[in-house]
Amino acid sequence: MTPQLSPLIDSLRARRLTVGLVGCKSARAVEVVDAIVSLPLTAVTVFGMSGVARGSLSPSVHITTDVADDSEAARAAVGAWQAGAVDILLKLDVSTKVLMQAVLDSRAGGWFTHVALILDEGRGSRFLLADSGLNRRPAAKDIVRIVERVALVARALGTVQPRIGLLSYREDADPLFPLFGEVLANHADDLSDFPVTLVGPTSFDVAVAETGAAAKGLAGGGVCDGIVSPDIIAANALYKAHMLRPD
């Protein structure tokens, strides 16, 4: 288990929860299951299996849906969450599209955004990224809600006052891309209610790497806890690029 996941595990340690894990098909997924099973107050139930995982899970894991079909596993998981049988759903080896389709089909209501936890094991760092899977071209009011959701996830991971970067290709406003300017100008009161420090607009290297910030003479950069993208294309590309990193 990567040490970058320890804040997530620690945040669950003192809570009595039933965690539903959706799509347990790989050795890496089994590592996550083992880590959560080790928590003293947490029960684990699995929706969706594969032959790789079936013989590797702890006897204490409750297997609710022993199927390889992702859609069926996702529907069962969302149904269990709606019924109160599980408190949290954690997506493992199943696509975001499949799981979120099950959520939307359930008519659960609410406004959703995709917040990914990116673990950069090569650097020994991590950051949150949104929205790489749901909101395709967010308006200014949507960016405010995305910032709020990123802050909630950051706080759940132990960062009380997260620094959230507004992703651009440079460190000053560009009139050809006015979205974040509109966010800061028209929604300042809403943003002031959130326990966050906004950074930017800022380029990616300045947001996540102190060396990148220093190279541009920007002291204090490279320490963002979250990144909010202006659209799904940039966020999804970053998400997939980190998934494909060899480390």
Keywords:
247 residues, Rossmann fold, 2 domains, 5-stranded mixed β-sheet, 4-stranded parallel β-sheet, globular
> Biggest sheet, strands in spatial order?
5-6-9-7-8
What is the mean pLDDT? 85
Uncertain segments are none
Shape: globular
**CATH fold name of the largest domain:** Isopropylmalate Dehydrogenase
In short:
By secondary structure, the protein is α/β, with parallel strands linked by helices. The chain contains eleven helices and nine strands.
Structure description:
With 247 residues, the protein is an alpha/beta fold. It has 2 domains: 3-105, 3-Layer(aba) Sandwich (Rossmann fold); 116-243, Isopropylmalate Dehydrogenase (3-Layer(aba) Sandwich), CATH 3.40.718. The chain is built from 11 helices and 9 strands. The strands form 2 sheets. It has a 5-stranded mixed sheet with strand order 5-6-9-7-8, sandwiched between helices. The chain has a 4-stranded parallel sheet with strand order 3-2-1-4, with helices on both faces. β5 and β6 (125-130) form a beta hairpin.
List the helices and strands and how they pair.
Layout: H1 6-13, E1 17-24, H2 27-37, E2 42-49, H3 51-54, E3 62-65, H4 70-82, E4 88-91, H5 96-105, E5 116-120, E6 125-130, H6 140-156, E7 163-167, H7 179-186, H8 188-192, E8 197-202, H9 204-208, H10 210-215, E9 226-228, H11 232-243
Parallel strand pairs: 1-2, 1-4, 2-3, 6-9, 7-8, 7-9
Antiparallel strand pairs: 5-6
Helix pairs in contact: 4-5, 6-7
